[in-house]
From TrEMBL, chain A:
Gene3D superfamilies: P-loop containing nucleotide triphosphate hydrolases. Residues 14-264 form the ABC transporter domain. InterPro entries: AAA+_ATPase, ABC_transp_ATP-bind, ABC_transporter-like_ATP-bd, ABC_transporter-like_CS, Oligopep_ABC_C, P-loop_NTPase. One of its GO terms (molecular function) is ATP hydrolysis activity. One of its GO terms (biological process) is transmembrane transport. Keywords: ATP-binding, Nucleotide-binding, Transport. This is Dipeptide ABC transporter ATP-binding protein.
From TrEMBL, chain B:
GO terms for molecular function: ATP binding; ATP hydrolysis activity. It comes from the Bacteria. This is ABC transporter ATP-binding protein. Residues 5-255 form the ABC transporter domain. The lineage of its organism: Bacteria, Bacillati, Bacillota, Bacilli, Bacillales. CDD domains: ABC_NikE_OppD_transporters. PROSITE patterns: ABC_TRANSPORTER_1, ABC_TRANSPORTER_2. NCBIfam families: oligo_HPY.
């Protein structure tokens, strides 16, 4: 039997089927739709309970839009999202509320999502006001528990956002996200804005919380080092398309898609003894409003052939539990 | 190698509502021609302020309180404004983290590229345009003639950073200061830009002072590394020494905080706590509240610089004994 997950016999928590998100480009006097930015193009995947799935890619590859689409912050153009076997993409606002408790998000810059004139404790209490019937006393007690949970102290309850350092603010963002005991958390570049020493602290905290509460993470990041440390499986995206999906072990040891190979070799290694051959990609990411024909990567691909310009490669399981979309998957460059 | 830049006991102060605050505390270093020095540390440790002090671009409430900055042996920290202005661009240039904020959005790339050439070299606009196109070619921009008439928003992030580098190198400076030049870029673009800076450094025999917090970038470009913490230099040495034999607990902590991409069993070891604010008065070593090796001595006395190896200095009491052993040895020989 082919196991899809590193930890076998797990239940599927979230499933995406052919998810597409196009943003219309409007122009002219009549503001007619002139074209579409294809931010997410036909993504299908599952997420298991208790798993961390990393989503990596360059900026503009649609990884954040994918996260927002799952939470329902963006309306899908096409496709279906199942959460615990229920379709959630077309639910009404009220019906959605019970899923909101289950699915939460941690943002890149928590300072931008905190009200600068509201005390931290009160900001966190709002979560309970919205979703529970707790009394004021219970709410305060719950918030203090939360603060302890993420490594802050009770004395931080009455402070304002500007009194915290970047790492502490991210802890507040995490506290808000886990307040209602969710089962699924999307981390959108949650540690990118932090210094390395603080980044390591926050990653440790996220891991501890995962073990304690059996959380599943969708971990969106551009830092492959962090993803390798933190995740069980990795999804690589390029220009809205999924190009490769595999276990962290399989994908890092044997990247099948030339883009993944280039991405891995481009990372500067913090050591003076590496002599890995660098694959230098030429040029920039193409415009997502006008993507190249055939394989989206062919304009920058060092091994592109004629067929790549015409035919879009299919998403196929090249090795067990290791998917890629490339005509020449597995060719080393 | 010829010394290009020498900084001796630099102290930079800021006037603030809470009184004078020292952002850089007694920092000394030097850069030779054709050498890359990387300054690393967490944000707020004073690495950017050190570079701004060198090029004389401190904000109006900041000033160099003591110490000296020498370029090719001549002091430049007390030059009058006009002379400093003549020096910027021709002797020392700087590129910044976010090219979109450093470029003027309402002027074409060509205009901004011609400006330093016309100002410093006193050449005609036509001549400057020609040289500008050459410069854009040199930094690897396709269709340079077309780019000259475009505005910054029409270019991608990597292109903008290339334009910034072209402007900085327009008048062949001897020293290039790069303040987090690749932080805002994607990894594949970052690799292109780092290659470009390395190539140009060799071609033009420039000194490069690179400020970064990414240990990967350091390993890639640096010849020597200086680690700063809370305004002080804590360790300096060749890139091999720093990565293979880091001495200061802070440097070791920094290296252990970066996830290793080639080693699946790597375990992160974060440094506890966070950087102290600049006003905070810390008795003894400024790192001791976060250091797991802190001794009583560390809480009372500021450690001086100990030389552990050729060109490798560290400010930490842990390495005092090493020093004494060596010193004793030396005395015995005499």
């Amino acid at each position: 039997m082919v196991t899809l997950s590193p930890k076998s016999n797990q239940k599927i928590l979230l499933e995406l089927k052919g998810v597409k998100k196009y943003f219309p480009i409007k122009g002219g006097i009549l503001k007619r739709v002139q074209g579409h930015v294809k931010a997410v193009e036909d993504v299908s995947l599952h997420l298991f309970e208790g798993e961390s799935l990393g989503v990596v890619g360059e900026s503009g590859c649609g990884k954040s839009t994918l996260g927002r689409a799952i939470l329902g912050l963006e309306e899908l153009t096409e496709g279906k999202i199942h959460f615990r076997d229920e379709e959630i993409q077309d639910l009404k606002r009220k019906e959605k509320l019970k899923f909101v408790k289950e699915m939460q998000m941690i943002f890149q810059d928590p300072y931008a999502s905190l009200n600068p004139r509201q005390r931290i404790g009160h900001a966190l209490e709002e979560v309970f006001t919205m979703h529970t019937n707790m009394s004021a006393k219970e709410k305060r007690a719950s918030v203090v528990d939360l603060l302890h949970e993420v490594g802050l102290k009770e004395e931080h309850f009455d402070r304002y956002p500007h009194e915290f350092s970047g790492g502490q603010r991210q802890r507040i963002g995490i506290a808000r996200a886990i307040a209602l005991n969710p089962s699924f958390v999307i981390c959108d570049e949650a540690v990118s804005a932090l210094d390395v020493s603080v980044q390591a602290q926050v990653l440790k905290l996220l891991k501890t919380l995962q073990e304690k509460y059996q959380l599943s993470y969708l971990f969106i990041s551009h830092d492959l080092g962090v993803v390798r440390y933190f995740c069980d499986r990795v999804l690589v995206m390029y220009l809205g398309n999924t190009v490769e999906l595999g276990t962290v072990k399989g994908l890092f040891a044997n990247p099948l898609h030339p883009y993944t190979q280039a991405l891995l070799s481009a990372i500067p290694r913090p050591s003076v003894h590496t002599n890995t051959k660098r694959i230098r990609l030429q040029g920039d990411l193409p415009n997502p409003a006008n993507p190249p024909s055939g394989c989206p990567f062919h304009t920058r691909c060092p091994i592109a052939q004629e067929v790549c310009k015409v035919d879009k490669p299919a998403w196929q399981e090249v090795e067990p539990a290791h998917f890629a979309a490339c005509h020449f998957a597995g060719t080393k460059i | 190698m010829e010394t290009l830049l020498e900084v001796n006991h630099l102290v930079t102060e800021f006037r603030t509502a809470e009184g004078n605050v020292q952002a850089v505390r007694d920092v000394s270093f030097s850069i030779a021609k054709g050498e890359t020095l990387c300054i690393v540390g967490e944000s707020g440790c004073g690495k950017s302020i050190t570079s701004l002090s060198v090029i004389g671009l401190l904000p109006s409430n900041g000033k160099i309180a003591s110490g000296e900055v020498k370029y090719e042996g001549k002091p430049i920290h007390d030059l009058p404004y006009e002379e400093l202005r003549k020096m910027r661009g021709t002797k020392i240039s700087m590129i910044f983290q976010e090219p979109m904020t450093a470029l003027n959005p309402v002027l074409t790339v060509g205009y901004q590229l011609r400006e330093p050439l016309i100002l410093h070299h006193k050449i005609s606009k036509n001549e400057a345009t020609k040289q500008g196109i050459e410069l854009l070619k040199q930094v690897g921009i396709p269709y340079p003639e077309k780019r000259m008439n475009q505005y910054p928003h029409e270019l991608s992030g990597g292109m903008r950073q290339r334009v910034m580098i072209a402007i900085a190198l327009a008048c062949h400076p001897g020293l290039l200061i790069a303040d987090e030049p690749t932080t805002a870029l994607d990894v594949t673009i970052q690799a292109q830009i780092l290659d470009l800076i390395n190539d140009l450094k060799e071609k033009l025999n420039m000194g490069v002072m690179m400020i970064t917090h990414d240990m990967g970038v350091v390993a890639e470009v640096a010849d020597r590394v200086m680690v700063m913490y809370a305004g002080k230099k804590v360790e300096e040495g060749s890139v091999q020494e720093i990565f293979d034999h880091p001495k200061h607990p802070y440097t070791i902590g920094l290296l252990n905080s970066v996830p290793n991409i080639d080693d699946p069993d790597f375990e992160l070891e974060p440094i506890p706590g966070s950087l102290p604010s600049l006003q905070e008065n810390i008795q003894g070593c400024r790192f001791h509240p976060r250091c797991k090796f802190a001794m009583d001595k560390c809480r009372e006395l500021t450690p001086p610089e100990f030389k552990t190896d050729e060109g490798h200095v560290v400010s930490c009491w842990l390495h005092e004994e090493v020093e004494e052993v060596k010193h004793g040895h030396l005395v015995a020989q005499i």
